[in-house]
Design goal:
about 260 residues, mainly alpha, Rna Polymerase Sigma Factor, Chain: A, 2 domains, about 0% strand
């Protein structure tokens, strides 16, 4: 972890603790805006610490920067709360926490992407991966890089079968020609039809606009007939499950030529 201003961090922790000790015990919807923000500042730090602070992952950002960016995301999320929707859910507290956590992590990821700059996997790392063509790292590398490039951003997922981009990137210019997007999309759709169920297939197809315009999670939820208040969260979970399913089941040799 990078070094950071420890006295300022300690002062921040003490201030958060002091503020929360002064807040009366109430239902969340009874708290004021400022009280609600203070209540969830510990959640911001908890989520921020799940992100790597290596140089490749976050550029000049340290943990205090990530907490700051997450706090901005928290404030924005609280200003957008719809209490009617939350209280109507089966588990209002979990729905509230999920809503805030998603936007806190989104704010941190956007800040990391801004400071990260352009990255490319070095040739020596690709050679190392190619030497073991049965390794599902190949599938993870392919699907993560393709889907994140469609989404016009780089993402990092440290699940068991997901390629750890953070440990193998370099700040070098990519002069390689771009893939034919239409052909790539058709290839992705063929793999998806083979290995995914219909719901997973539709979520990925619509979310990334592989054969149509990109759809929002809310629109996708309506399309696949999910009507619960946490529908957008469920859509995000299905998307992740679909990508993990492709990584797990697609033969690495099928994607080798694309790396």
């Amino acid at each position: 972890m990078k070094s950071y201003n420890l006295p300022n961090y300690i002062r921040y922790k003490e201030d958060v603790k002091e503020i929360n000790n002064k807040i009366e015990i109430k239902e969340y919807q009874e708290l004021s805006r400022d009280e609600l923000i203070a209540k969830f500042l510990p959640l911001v730090e908890n989520l921020a610490r799940k992100f790597s602070t290596t140089q490749q992952a976050s550029g000049v950002l340290d943990i205090t920067d990530l907490i700051q960016e997450g706090s901005i995301g928290l404030i924005s999320a609280i200003d957008r709360l719809n209490w009617e929707t939350i209280t109507e859910s089966e588990d209002p507290i979990q729905t509230l926490k999920s809503f805030l956590a998603k936007r806190i992590k989104g704010a941190i990821r956007r800040s990391i992407d801004i400071h990260r700059g352009s990255i490319k996997i070095p040739e020596h790392k690709l050679i190392e991966i190619r030497n073991n063509p049965t390794d599902h790292t190949l599938s993870a590398l392919f699907f993560n890089s393709v889907f994140y490039s469609i989404d016009d951003k780089v993402g990092v997922n440290n699940d068991e079968h997901t390629f750890d981009i953070e440990s193998s990137v370099a700040q070098i210019v990519d002069d390689a020609p771009e893939y034919n997007i239409d052909l790539m999309n058709k290839y992705l759709l063929s793999l998806m039809k083979t290995h995914l169920n219909k719901r997973q297939y539709d979520v990925l197809r619509l979310f990334y606009g592989l054969d149509c315009d990109k759809k929002s999670a809310k629109d996708i939820a309506k399309y696949i007939n999910i009507t619960v208040p946490t529908a957008t969260v469920i859509v995000s979970q299905i998307k992740k499950e679909a990508i993990d399913c492709l990584i797990e089941n697609v033969d690495p040799s099928q994607v080798l030529d694309y790396l």
